[in-house]
TrEMBL record:
Protein name listed in UniProt: Glucose 1-dehydrogenase
Cross-referenced NCBIfam families: PRK07231.1
Database matches in CDD domains: SDR_c (cd05233)
Pfam families for the chain: adh_short_C2
Organism listed in the record: Amycolatopsis pithecellobii
Family membership noted in the UniProt record: Belongs to the short-chain dehydrogenases/reductases (SDR) family.
GO molecular function: glucose 1-dehydrogenase [NAD(P)+] activity
SUPFAM superfamilies in the record: NAD(P)-binding Rossmann-fold domains
InterPro entries linked to this entry: NAD(P)-bd_dom_sf, SDR_fam
Residue runs in coiled coils: none
Source organism superkingdom: Bacteria
Keyword Oxidoreductase: yes
């Protein structure tokens, strides 16, 4: 679709072209795609023309998602993936390239929630597991996604952090630390590969209605209390996060690199 530009003399008079489908021709890999934000991202990206590879441990759920996407005319592949296992991540990326011939985008989304206890009451094994999934998982993903993207001239990576990656929160300190770590890795790797054509950005979701959210806050009262932290006084839907990731994967963000987009209704600005 072509939109006529306004005639203001300081504006470039060239018509603005809006691509009908912003991910046409692109192959996108999503980790932790068996539920929540990852599954919503797969649906959104297929609707925008992408070939999508969904990775997670629950292969039955992924296969149902792939059936749904392909029945709607999309191209999708399910791969078994444990992001804590380097060989599993390497194979998932390799399977992606073998099936679709390229990798243009990735959403590093898989994560575990925090234990829900003050630090002295946390279980060290669980805390180590959170760092393994949330930080090592993003590290392994970047390590194998970037070379695959470089092989076809570049790409765009979205690391899923959290509003808890830009502020502190009590009783989930290991989760918060892991999400700050994701942002540090995002910014540093963006500096390493921006010049080669791979952009790396992060999104910082606020409260979003998913399995993780329901497990963290199992009662309506607890959910209402947390929703009130957002100036918009509600929680997001998974597709709200998928839309932000879509922007970062599309050419519309071609000059955006190493940044964090908070998609939290303004929660991080302050709780007043
Ligand atoms: N829901 C929220 O309120 C919220 C807020 C801020 C950030 N986030 C972030 O959004 C992302 C998606 O979470 P969600 O809310 O959709 O929850 P979710 O639990 O539905 O999704 C997380 C996914 O990661 C997968 N996963 C966990 N360990 C894995 C492993 N070792 N290998 C592969 N996959 C693994 C899970 O199976 C699950 O499908 C996470 O990074 C989460 O930290 C969510």
């Amino acid at each position: 679709m072509t939109v006529a530009s306004t005639a203001h003399p300081n504006h470039n008079p060239a018509p603005v072209t809006i691509e009908a489908r912003r991910l046409d021709g692109k192959t996108i890999f999503i980790t932790g795609a068996s539920s929540g934000i990852g599954a919503a991202a797969a649906r959104r990206f297929v609707a925008e023309g992408a070939d999508v590879v969904v990775g997670a441990r629950r292969i039955d759920r992924l296969e149902s998602l792939v059936d749904e996407l392909t029945s709607e005319g999309g191209n999708a592949l399910a791969v078994h993936l444990d992001v804590t296992d380097e060989a599993s991540v390497a194979k998932a990326v390799q399977d992606t390239v073998e099936r679709f011939g390229r990798l243009d985008g990735a959403v590093n989304n898989a994560a575990l929630s925090g234990a829900g206890a003050p630090i002295v009451d946390t279980d060290s094994d669980y805390v180590r597991q959170v760092f393994d999934v949330n930080l090592m998982g993003v590290y392994f993903s970047l390590k194998y996604e970037i070379p695959a993207m470089l092989a076809t001239g570049g790409g765009s990576i979205v690391n899923v952090s959290s509003v808890g990656g830009i502020i502190g929160m009590p009783n989930i300190s290991e989760y918060i630390a892991s999400k700050w770590g994701v942002i540090g890795m995002t910014k540093s790797v963006a500096l390493e590969y921006g010049g080669a054509g791979v952009r790396v950005n992060a999104i910082a979701p606020g409260s979003t209605k998913t399995d993780m959210y329901d497990a963290w806050l199992p009662t309506p009262e607890a959910q209402a209390k947390v929703a009130a932290y957002s100036p918009m006084n509600q929680i997001a839907l998974p597709d709200d996060m998928a839309r932000v990731a879509l922007f970062l994967l599309s050419e519309e963000s071609r000059w955006t690199n190493g940044t964090v987009i908070a998609a939290d209704g303004g929660q991080h600005v302050g709780c007043f």
